[in-house]
Every structure is written in structure tokens, then in C-alpha cells.
Amino acid sequence: MSNVLFTSKATAKGGRDGHVKSDDGLIDLNLVNPAGDSSGTGSNPEQLFAAGYSACYDGALNLMASKQKKDIDSSITAEVSLLKDTDDGGFKIGVVLNVEIKGVSQEEAEELAKAAHDFCPYSKATRGNIDVELKTKAV
């Protein structure tokens, strides 16, 4: 890896029914498997991925808008689903990015959403690996 700008660290123990903590302590969460029998309260890997992806994508979207001199207000809701993988009997994830953009037409919103998807580091990391669907709405 070259040109590293920064590195974030988190440690997980116990898998989906364990605990995750970032090195700075800002993230310090119990994990529960929503598909399991757990009655505990906690997060899960899909929820954490949704938070990261939505934040990263919104940053990319606003950068694309600023480069095109468009003044927007945006909101991204990432839905990350755990899916049964019919190919190998295991599991995989799928993502729906619900993109709401205020200040542009529907056509401009769709163009900005695609440009952000091409640029976003999370989108680049997942491209060709998982299904990501963009649902874009000008509001």
C-alpha cells in the first residue's frame, strides 16, 4: 500500500456475538446476531458497514456536486443485508443506497449519484464483489 493518508483500527472478539472496540475507544460496542437467538442489545457488522458506507458515499456525493458547482443538501441511507449465497451455501452481503438530494433535478441527482458511486472508496472496494443498488430521489 502506498500513499496511506491515515489508518483506523478496531478489534473484534467473539464474532457476531462478541464485542468490537476502536483503538481510540469511540466505538465500543457489543455485537449481537440479529438472525440468532440473542436477546441482548448491540450492533452487528452489517449496521457498522452501513454507517461507514453511507458516510463515505455522502462525502463523495458532495465532492462531485461541488466540482460541478451545484449547491445540494443530501442524505444517504445504506441498507446492508446479509444474504444466503446460493453458489456456495454460505453468506454474502448486498447493499441498497437510498440517495436523497435537494437542490437539483431528478436527472441531475441521478448523474451525481452515479459519479459519486464511481468515486467513493467503499463503492470501489465493493465493485464486482457485492450487489449495490442506487435508489436516487431528488427532493
TrEMBL record:
This is Organic hydroperoxide resistance protein OhrA. NCBIfam families: organ_hyd_perox. Gene3D superfamilies: 2.20.25.10, 3.30.300.20. Transmembrane segments: none annotated. Belongs to the OsmC/Ohr family. GO terms for biological process: response to oxidative stress. It comes from the Bacteria. Pfam families: OsmC.
